[in-house]
Amino acid sequence: MKPQRFAATALAALFTLAACAENPVAPASSVIDAASSSAFSRAANHPYTFTRLDVPGATQTIPSGINARGRVVGWYVQGGVTRGFFYEAGAWTTNIVYPGATATLLRGIGPDGTIVGTYRNAIEPTAVPSHGFVLTTDGVFIAVNFPGHLNNVTQRIMPDGTLLGCYHDGDTMNSMHGAAYTRETYEEPLSGEGYSSLDNNASMTNGGAPGGRRFAGQIFQTYQRAFVIDDGVLTAFSVGTSPTVAWDMNPAGTVVGLFVAGTTHGFVLEHWRVVNGEVTGDYTTINYPNSAYTDVFGINASGDIVGKFRETPTGPFHGYVATR
User: Fold this and answer.
1) Which of 10, 55, 98, 205 could bond 217 through an S-S bridge, CB–CB 3.0 to 4.6 Å?
2) Would you tell me which CATH number, out of the four given (3.30.420.10, 2.120.10.30, 3.90.960.10, 2.60.40.420), belongs to the domain 4-323?
3) Are 154 and 130 in contact (CB under 8 A)?
4) Given pLDDT bands bounded at 50, 70 and 90, which one contains residue 165?
5) Residue 118: which residues within 8 A CB-CB, separation 6 or more?
6) Distance from C-alpha of 43 to C-alpha of 211, rounded to nearest angstrom
7) pLDDT, tens digit (0-9, with 9 covering 90-100), for 31-48
């Protein structure tokens, strides 16, 4: 069966794009004031308790996802090599490598512990050398590939086993389309069914709530903007006029991500709704204490968040988990 493409307004099309703009750069003309954004009201003060996460011996640590039990997944750099890790209750499991790959990035984790991510090979012919995989709870790697396209990213896994990600051809933006992969695409890959994609190019869906009605991600419209999808309708939004990316959504619909305001800051968006084409909700800025950069990459059902920070503007990345 040929993969089917859906329009942006079709509910089945609400699926993601890639990790090509994890750290967008603000245009020189940006006027950035998160507090003055008409789209958001400042949320009540919800202080977070931050715990720093550094893989022992690593030069950089980048958490990307967290599930309901508090298991964190991500990737780290050590000796110039990128490998996956997971962390839970103070214990590290490291050196997770897709067979034969030169770089392995764990991106998301489901309620049952199933992990999704991407890997890269030593020699790649395109600008987006990413290929998707599922890592089962039994420790088995399963490749995930959108038929007819060179590269793809598997970013999140939903409770029903649906994967959210994207595909690319030879470039980072113009050929980038959101993609979804049902469980049968990796459990019964020879069927050729279970793939769907989003018509909007240069877009990316990075998380969703169970039920298939609400999703979040990013789309390029002059500059990088976040979006939410509710009942098939995509609405873009920004923090002020800042480049903004939504990186995850938990079962309650809370959205997390980053925006660039001189430096990069994380955000949490709760109780959002769309009114007259505008996204409104309760918005909280997230900054790791005394940091020069903070983002939020993942959120779980309890509202715990994970991401990375820099202590100096050009320093290495360190990870964190934060709880209320």
Assistant:
1) 205
2) 2.120.10.30
3) no
4) confident
5) 19, 104, 105, 107, 130, 131, 132, 133, 153, 154
6) 26
7) 333 333 434 555 545 589
